[in-house]
Write a structure and sequence with these properties.
TIM Barrel; 8-stranded parallel barrel; binds phosphoenolpyruvate
Length: 243
C-alpha cells in the first residue's frame, strides 16, 4: 500500500520543514504503508533532510528525460537522485492539460527517470467529456500502452500507475469505489504494477477506496497539504493493507 501526497505548487521551503517534521513525528510507528511526499523543486532538499531515516520518501513532481542539456526550466533525473530524491510523478493531468505533456513526452520522461534509478508514479485518467462520450476505456488503454512501451521489464518494480479521473481532481467529486475498481482492473490487465487511485481522496472516503481489490494506494492532492488529513489517509492505507 502506497500513499503519495502531491503538493503541487504549494508550500515554501520553510513551510516544508515544519510540515515534514510534524509528519515524521505523527507517522512514527505507523506500519504496513509506504508514504511519499512530492514537494515543489525548491522544497525537495529540505524535505529530504528533515525526513532522512524516517522511511518517508521524497519524490519530485516531474523530471526531464536527458541527463543534462539546453532545456531551460527543466530538471534532470540525475539531479534529483543526487540530492536524495527517490522518485518522481510523471504525466500528471495538470502537466497534460496545462503544459502540453503528451503520451510521447510522458513516455520519454518515464524512461529517463527509470534509467536514472528513480521510482516513477505515472498518471493516467479520462476527462469528463471523454467519460460522457463512452471513451474512458480507449483513453486509458492508449495512455497505459504508451507507458508500458516506455518501461523495460527489469525496471517495472520501480513503476506505479495512478488512475486519476480528471473530473475528480481538485473538484471534491470522487470516483465511486466501483468506478475506481473498474478502471483499475482494466489498467491491471494492460500493465501489472501497483495502482494508485487519485481524485479528491479524503479521510472520509479513503477506507472504501483503498479496500477495493485492485487499488494499491492513493495519490492525494489537496488533502495531503494538512498533516491531520494526510496522516488519516496514511492510517487508512495501513488498515487496508492489513484487511
Ligand atoms: C492530484 O493532484 O493528484 C489530486 C488527486 O488532487 P486532489 O486530491 O486534490 O483531487
Amino acid at each position: 500500500m502506497l500513499i503519495a501526497g502531491n503538493w503541487k505548487m504549494f508550500k515554501t521551503a520553510a513551510q516544508t520543514i515544519s510540515f515534514c517534521a510534524e509528519l515524521r513525528k505523527r507517522l512514527h510507528g505507523v506500519r504496513d504503508v509506504e508514504v511519499v511526499v512530492c514537494p515543489p523543486y525548491t522544497s525537495l532538499d529540505e524535505a529530504v533532510r528533515v525526513l532522512a531515516g524516517s522511511g518517508i520518501e521524497v519524490f519530485a513532481q516531474n523530471a526531464h528525460w536527458e541527463r543534462e542539456g539546453a532545456f531551460t526550466g527543466e530538471i534532470a533525473p540525475a539531479m534529483l537522485a543526487e540530492i536524495g530524491v527517490t522518485g518522481s510523478l510523471v504525466a500528471h493531468s495538470e502537466r497534460r492539460q496545462l503544459f502540453a505533456e503528451t503520451d510521447g513526452s510522458s513516455a520519454r520522461r518515464i524512461g529517463g527517470a527509470l534509467d536514472a534509478g528513480l521510482r516513477v508514479i505515472a498518471c493516467v485518467g479520462e476527462t469528463e467529456t471523454e467519460r460522457e462520450a463512452g471513451e474512458t476505456e480507449n483513453v486509458l488503454r492508449r495512455q497505459v500502452e504508451a507507458i508500458a512501451a516506455a518501461v523495460d521489464e527489469e525496471d517495472r518494480n520501480r513503476l506505479a500507475v495512478a488512475y486519476e479521473p480528471v473530473w475528480a481532481i481538485g473538484t471534491g467529486r470522487t470516483a465511486t469505489p466501483e468506478q475506481a475498481e473498474e478502471a483499475h482492473a482494466l489498467i491491471r490487465s494492460l500493465l501489472d504494477v501497483p495502482l494508485l487511485y487519485g481524485g479528491s481522496v479524503k479521510p472520509e472516503n479513503a477506507d472504501e477506496l483503498l479496500t477495493q481489490p485492485d487499488v494499491d494506494g492513493a495519490l492525494v492532492g489537496g488533502a495531503s497539504l494538512e498533516v491531520d488529513s494526510f496522516v488519516a489517509i496514511c492510517e487508512a492505507g495501513a488498515r487496508a493493507s492489513r484487511s
